Amino acid sequence: MAFNDDSFIREVNEELRSDHARNVWRRFGGYVVGAAVLLVLATAGYRGYEYWQDHRSSGAGDKFLAALKLADEKKTDEALAALAQLEKDGHGAYPVLARMRAATLQAEKGDTAAAVAAFTEIGKDTAIPAAVREAARLRAGWLLVDNGTYEQVSAEVEEMAVPQNALRHSAREALGLAAYKAGDAVKARQWFQQIVDDPQAPRNVANRAQMMLDIITASGKAPVAQG
Q1: What is the pLDDT of residue 199?
Q2: Which of 39, 57, 120, 219 is 20 to 30 A (C-alpha) from 131?
């Protein structure tokens, strides 16, 4: 009986492929099933971990809000205790937020030394994001404007008073005020002038800097440099 060569060859190839597939499955099917099971378990575990993380963060967030409520109610000592506990057993970003808020409460309470120490400690903690560390150092510097020396303010904020730093305007203002308070009108003028000359300085900061420049000029303690 005649037969079509092309049809016969296709049938043989299909049979060979099918037979090859059966052989491969017999050899490796157990591994494939095992890998699939592991994939399912890993996915389920990851989803479970995400839920656990979200649940912990939600609980820490509730505790943080409760501490803020105590602070708003002027229950400062209770708020500080709640924040200290959250710093120990909180999750996610809340321990850092608790440290920052506790330092602010200490300043509001009038314990400036404790507040400065707390902000300075946060500023030196390399486990904390750089932006938060810089914000903490800036807070310490501003507290020191009224309660410390120019050198102490400089130690906290001068590294931020550079063109590429987003906090440079506030850092320069703190340095200018600290220098003026220390009686160094020349150095104060330099810092305030940097603010006025910076086109990206916020209007309110630039206006305050210009006002201080006018005061310094009127005092005659730091004559304007002649170009």
Answers
A1: 95
A2: 57
